[in-house]
Amino acid sequence: MNTNFELYKIFYCVAKYKNITKAAHALYRNQPNISRSIQKLEEELNCKLFVRTKKGVELTPEGACLYAHVEIAIEQIIKAQQELLKQKEMELGSISIGVTESALNIFLLEKLENFHKKYPKIHLRISNHSTPQAIQALENGLVDFSIVVTPTILPSHLKQMPLLDFQDILVGGKQYKELATTTFSLQDLKSYPLIMLGKETMTHSFFSQLFFQNNTEFNSEFEVATMDQVLPLVIHNLGLGFLPYPMAKEALEKKEIVSISIKETIPMRQVVLIEDKRAPLSMAAKSFIQELNI
Question: Which residue has the higher pLDDT, 29 or 82?
């Protein structure tokens, strides 16, 4: 049996209104067309579905049995259509984002605020990760996309889109303010305690590679889990630390910390968005990504 879905839709409408004329109006069809469709369905199912009454029609026992199932299916389809329409109009939906602390602070927070003001009914779920963890969360389907800082190591099915260029700077607390008047080499930093992210992070790998390329040993006195933990330790004079300039800017302006010049060039890094090319994005997620470039 290969009954046209449209016949069940017509059957549902007639059963709901118990009147062929009302069903015809609801479906924007003429009455003879509705009657022919019901007759065709009855022929295909080899049973009577309706009996005529003075007020319209009533379901037969066979019709009532069919309606019990068709009603569930049709109403679920209608509900799905309504939800899709709401998603299209950004009145319903959710977005899950994996993000590093650095990317959140120097780029994403303002974008989240603007998006939430524009689409307050979209549910946002933010997961805080290191760059490798954020990439793994995307691989495992736990987030819609991830926003991280470079460097990144990606398999071929993941793609990244640049969002913001930024520069890392070396900073110290007030106890180290005299260092702000001199230019140091990476080699000179061996004499001072360094505060860095843990070895499992790409930021640690980035600076480890920088020191190695300049024939300098890289050791840190303090290791922290997230970038936002570096600044408080620097402010409290526990050592020197490398920070993205946007994260250090306010503390520099307040003169809570000082910027220390080094001879070697620190390569620029980027905040990037990473997507899985194999996984389609929801309308809400697509809209959010569009907002990131505004």
Answer: 29
Nearest to 278, CA basis, from 102, 143, 157: 157
**For 132-221, where are the E strands, in sequence order?**
145-149, 158-166, 168-173, 183-184, 194-197
Contact 112, 99 (CB under 8 A): no
3-state class of 163 per DSSP? Answer: strand
Which pair of structure tokens corresponds to residue 158? 């993941």
Q: What gap in Å lies between CA 211 and CA 216, rounded to an integer? A: 5
The fold for domain 94-165+271-292 equals D-Maltodextrin-Binding Protein; domain 2 (3.40.190)
Burial (CB count <10 Å: 0-12, 13-18, 19+), residue 13: buried
67 token code pair: 């309606």
Band of residue 11 on the pLDDT scale cut at 50, 70, 90:
very high
Q: State the CATH architecture for 5-88.
A: Orthogonal Bundle (1.10)
CA torsion sign for 225, 228, 232, 234 is: positive
Every domain range in the chain assigned CATH 1.10.10.10:
5-88
Cβ proximity of 200 and 132 under 8 Å:
yes
Where exactly does CATH 3.40.190.10 map onto the chain? 94-165+271-292, 168-267
Helix (H) or strand (E) holding 50: strand 50-52
Domain 168-267 carries which CATH code? 3.40.190.10
| 28 Rama sector, left if φ>0, alpha if ψ -120 to 50, beta otherwise | left
For 63-88, write each residue's pLDDT tens digit. 999 999 998 988 888 777 766 766 56
Task: Tell which residue, 2, 1, 291, has the closest CA to residue 147.
Answer: 291
pLDDT at 94: 84
Q: What is the pLDDT of residues 224-245, one digit of tens each?
A: 988 889 999 999 999 999 999 9
pTM value > 0.90:
no
